[in-house]
């Protein structure tokens, strides 16, 4: 018999700590300021209306729900959460994972539950309106089901292997046959993040087949664009709604209690344009806190945000000038290689560390005396102090896909003059 308690405890502990901070950064050698966002459970979704098959067919009524409420309501028959980059899809899944792990632990291991609850009722969770299955009634999917986060960005071989790896990372080792049996018994709640982040078409086919084979297992999927990766024929779709102006203002005041009003005055009517997703708002707040002014456009928000990492390290952190000199160009090259697959639909948001080091070594060849050593040192520094991180399976990823796309765009911008010249030289 499987002992789920250590796994659920590991999830509760890890994600309760993760939830303290809504941030992309964790710079080695710097004290991290923990700021809690009051907005994480206020995200709203609307049902996506299917296209009418017949003229005059009645339009279904649009539902507007809180994001977690909507996901719980439709998970049994599978639901797809659609939203813009940085709109809070992955954040919503992480929050749901935490709540379902707490609820499953309370249901499956009721003895001494009150003492366990105290360990998660930290100050970090109280403003996030923690939903306890015991204190508020079991308004969850955790009726003995075990939540598992399936991060498709790490796809290499199969969906089953992703499930196995996530369980193993949190202290539970199961082989493939055991996982298949648990799927057959409907023991899992699968939170499948990032259909658009699957690296190749064969992976999408595998995911679609997996969903069809395990149709009775509750599943929640996310994607940023229905045109990228498709919808896996999932009938029920929920769309993340933009933050309201009141939510944006609340967000800014929560992160910048001393400077929030000044930032809002500078933004004026541009608040909606520059800050309609939590990620963009966070970047704006971070830049305003450091510089005291708002960039004039979205492109400069990304550029200044990236450059800020080159300049904000403490003086007592020893980073060679040679390493720091290459950072921006190496990130551009890494993003370019990850985004430029052999096929038009091939895109990687995570690559093995060894491959990343080989990419940087090749780029530095002929530019520095010892390219392999320089690539190794620069990669270490970037992982410790910049906008890439080490993910599951020793794979390197940007801290958000939008950040990767920004560096890729900077790389493409440098190629435009040569591309325009080549185009002009073609015979007419």
Helix and strand composition category: alpha/beta
Order of the strands making up the biggest sheet: 2-1-7-3-6-5-4
How many β-strand stretches? 10
- Measured distance between first and last alpha carbons: 73 Å
Q: How many discrete domains?
A: 3
CATH architecture of the largest domain: 3-Layer(aba) Sandwich
Reported by name, the CATH topology of the largest domain is Rossmann fold
The ordered string of helix (H) and strand (E) elements is HEEHEHHEHHEHEEHHHHHHEHHEEH
Rounded to the nearest angstrom, the radius of gyration is 23 Å
Please give the share of residues in helix. Answer: 40-55%
Which ranges are low-confidence, i.e. pLDDT below 50, for 5 or more consecutive residues?
Answer: 21-39, 119-138
The level 1 CATH classification of the largest domain is Alpha Beta
Largest sheet: 7 strands, mixed
The chain-level mean pLDDT equals 81
Strand percent estimate: 5-15%
What's the shape?
Answer: globular
Name of the CATH superfamily of the largest domain: P-loop containing nucleotide triphosphate hydrolases
Number of helices: 16
Description:
There is one protein chain. By secondary structure, this protein is an alpha/beta fold. The protein folds into three domains: 5-50 and 63-240, P-loop containing nucleotide triphosphate hydrolases (Rossmann fold), CATH 3.40.50.300; 245-311, no CATH class; 321-413, Arc Repressor Mutant, subunit A (Orthogonal Bundle), CATH 1.10.10. 48% of the residues lie in helices and 10% in strands. It contains 16 helices and ten strands. The strands form two sheets. A seven-stranded mixed β-sheet has the order 2-1-7-3-6-5-4. α14 (353-364) crosses α15.
């Amino acid at each position: 018999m499987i002992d789920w308690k250590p796994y659920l405890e590991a999830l509760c502990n890890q994600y309760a700590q993760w939830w303290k901070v809504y941030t992309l950064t964790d710079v080695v050698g710097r004290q991290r300021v923990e700021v809690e966002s009051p907005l994480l459970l206020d995200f709203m979704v609307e049902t996506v209306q299917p296209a009418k098959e017949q003229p005059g067919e009645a339009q279904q009524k649009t539902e507007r729900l809180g994001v977690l409420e909507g996901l719980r309501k439709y998970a049994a028959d599978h639901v797809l959460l659609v939203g813009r980059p940085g709109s809070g899809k992955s954040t919503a899944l992480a929050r749901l994972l935490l709540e379902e792990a707490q609820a499953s632990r309370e249901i499956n291991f009721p003895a001494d539950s009150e003492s366990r609850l105290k360990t998660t009722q930290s100050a970090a969770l109280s403003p996030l309106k923690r939903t306890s299955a015991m204190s508020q009634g079991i308004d969850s999917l955790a009726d003995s089901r075990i939540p598992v986060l399936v991060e498709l960005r790490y796809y290499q071989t199969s969906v089953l292997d992703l499930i196995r790896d996530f369980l193993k990372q949190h202290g539970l080792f199961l082989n493939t046959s055991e996982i298949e049996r648990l799927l057959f018994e409907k023991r899992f709640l699968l939170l499948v993040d990032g259909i658009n982040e699957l690296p190749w078409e064969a992976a999408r086919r595998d995911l679609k087949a997996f969903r069809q084979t395990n149709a009775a297992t509750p599943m929640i999927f996310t994607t940023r664009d229905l045109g990228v990766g498709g919808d896996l024929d999932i009938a029920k779709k929920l769309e993340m709604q933009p933050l309201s102006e009141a939510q944006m203002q609340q967000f800014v005041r929560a992160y910048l209690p001393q400077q929030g009003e000044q930032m809002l005055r500078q933004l004026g009517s541009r608040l909606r344009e520059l800050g309609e997703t939590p990620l963009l708002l966070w970047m704006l707040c971070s830049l305003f806190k450091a510089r005291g002014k708002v960039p004039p456009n979205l492109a400069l928000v990304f550029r200044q945000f990236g450059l800020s990492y080159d300049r904000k390290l403490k003086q007592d952190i020893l980073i060679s000038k040679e390493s720091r000199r290459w950072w921006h160009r190496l990130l551009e090259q890494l993003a370019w290689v990850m985004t430029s697959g052999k096929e038009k639909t091939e895109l990687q948001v995570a690559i093995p560390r060894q491959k990343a080091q080989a990419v940087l070594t090749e780029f530095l060849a002929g530019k520095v005396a010892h390219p392999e050593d320089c690539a190794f040192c620069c990669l270490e520094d970037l992982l410790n102090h910049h906008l890439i991180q080490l993910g599951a399976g020793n794979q390197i990823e940007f801290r958000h896909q939008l950040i990767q796309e920004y560096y890729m765009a900077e790389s493409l911008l440098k190629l435009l003059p040569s591309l325009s010249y080549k185009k002009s030289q073609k015979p007419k």
